[in-house]
Amino acid sequence: MTTIILESKEVTSTVVVKAKYVCDRCGAEIPSHLYNVHDFTLTFERGTSYPDGGNGDGWHVNDMCQNCVMWLRNLLIANGVKVETFEWDY
Ligand SMILES: [Zn+2]
Asked: What's the 3 CA to ligand 1 centre distance in angstroms?
């Protein structure tokens, strides 16, 4: 006769739900609406990546309000960074 012992373990986890988005620069609330698009992410990553693994580090800015995005865009352009524009329509 085989005896199977099942063990259970209680697991707790924390889920962070953003109730609102605030600008990482000025703290202003970023309006959120089902059909509005306001997407901003500035990311830098460095490291190595192979098929079986890798490592690295980096930094990012996730949320900026419209005013601060324009401030950053103008700052980049004023300092010689090529900022490309794009449009979409579907
Ligand atoms: Zn802002």
From this structure: 62
**Ion ligand 1 neighbours, Cβ < 5 Å:** 23, 25-26, 28, 65, 68
Give the Å distance between the CA of 74 and the centre of ligand 1: 14
Domain count, the chain: 1
> Strand 21-22 and strand 53-61: pairing?
unpaired
Given this model, what pLDDT does residue 31 score? 86
Residue 48 domain flag: yes
To the question of pTM greater than 0.85 for the whole model, the response is no
In the Cβ-directed half-sphere of 14, how many Cα atoms lie within 13 Å? 2
Give the range of the structural domain holding residue 44, as residue numbers without chain letter.
21-78
